[in-house]
């Protein structure tokens, strides 16, 4: 300390670091464990297995819902009537926005680099595709004119 009562050459730690002993650093590689921050600061929390399982279930069902939206046909009959094509187009656009928004939320959850989150996201998408997108439960033939409400999510 100098004569003025100040510490020379040392800066005070930020106030947020002195009060939060369980503040976690963001991982930049995959890791296993329940102590992760997924989507929100401090969620699911430190050493809360139940909240971690809830977070995994949320990511799983979000991925499953994205696959349902990608393969649903609820507007097909309304679109074929040609009476309200603008209304159907607006509903398709809204469904597209919801699907893309949810897909980005799943992507952001995976960016927590928690291996459990990664695995449940893949499981949700895979099981969703199996039930809603594959031919396992659909009795359609190629070229029957039945299509989904939304265009496919393509990588290319």
TrEMBL record:
The chain crosses the membrane at residues 49-66, 87-107, 113-132. The keyword Transport applies. Keywords: Copper, Copper transport, Ion transport, Membrane, Transmembrane, Transmembrane helix, Transport. It comes from the Eukaryota. One of its GO terms (molecular function) is copper ion transmembrane transporter activity. It is a multi-pass membrane protein. The keyword Transmembrane helix applies. InterPro entries: Cop_transporter (IPR007274). One of its GO terms (cellular component) is membrane. It is found in: Membrane. Pfam families: Ctr. Belongs to the copper transporter (Ctr) (TC 1.A.56) family. SLC31A subfamily. PANTHER family: COPPER TRANSPORTER 2-RELATED (PTHR12483:SF24), SOLUTE CARRIER FAMILY 31 COPPER TRANSPORTERS (PTHR12483). This is Copper transport protein.
């Amino acid at each position: 300390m100098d004569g003025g009562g100040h510490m020379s050459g040392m800066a005070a730690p930020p106030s947020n670091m002195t009060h939060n002993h369980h503040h976690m650093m963001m991982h930049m590689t995959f890791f296993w464990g329940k102590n992760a921050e997924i989507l929100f600061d401090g969620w699911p929390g430190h050493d809360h297995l139940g909240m971690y399982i809830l977070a995994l279930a949320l990511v799983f069902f979000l991925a499953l819902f994205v696959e349902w939206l990608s393969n649903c046909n609820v507007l097909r009959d309304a679109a074929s009537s040609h009476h309200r094509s603008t209304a159907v187009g607006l509903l398709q656009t809204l469904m597209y926005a919801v699907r893309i928004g949810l897909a980005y939320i799943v992507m952001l959850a995976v960016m927590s680099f928690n291996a459990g989150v990664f695995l449940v996201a893949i499981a949700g998408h895979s099981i969703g595709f199996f039930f809603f997108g594959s031919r396992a439960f659909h009795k359609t033939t190629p070229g029957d004119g039945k299509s989904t409400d939304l265009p496919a999510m393509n990588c290319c």
